[in-house]
Description:
single chain, mainly alpha, elongated, 240 residues, 8 helices, two-stranded antiparallel sheet
Amino acid sequence: MATSALLPANPLPPARRSFRWASLGPFLILAATASLLHANWLLIPARFPVHWDLQGQVNGWATRNFWGVYGMLLLAALFCALDLFLGWATLHWAGHPRGAASPARRRNAAWALLACSYLLALAFSFVALLPLRGASLSAANALVIVPTVLIPCAAAIAVLVAWQSHPAGAHPRSSPPPEPHHQAHWVAGVVYYNPDDPSILVPKQFGFGYTLNFAHPLSWWLLGATGAAITVAMLLSSPH
Length: 240
């Protein structure tokens, strides 16, 4: 048997391989948190707060059972999976109604989504570990600590993405003017609907980021999955 037959016909580019391996990070964080909770199961109170009002008063409780302890981590895994799917789709399926999208721009968008997944995993892990701290960490402290950690991280990610998009000394090329044929597929300049375009994600006409090609069936599946995740999040976070 020829050696070439054992090799993949189209090996992944280095950027995509790196993204694939880095995508494991958020789930490893969540798995490590779940292992820590499991190892300290008896230290978790039988009933612990999970929801606070704006005044910091507890108005929601959970019990020490599977969903009460691990539900937050499962929800985070769902959100991270959606985030990483968007990043993967940006690398593989993102097109441009006026030609190929910039590979650098697609990489930056995908890595920004990956960074958001890391932030989600860290934030949800922090909240999931609160029962182990007992009453020593109040809701007010939690409401201060989480934004203090996440906001600077989010700002750093935004600066990094902007810097990579326009590195020092580089002269960004101007985009070609939109062709009338493709311009007709934009509804109010916001919604893109083009049945002849196989791309699922296309760059927005205004601002940074990508939007869905609503003529592609997979776009609606993605919207449905996002809506389901939000519904589950609301049900799990509602006071009870």
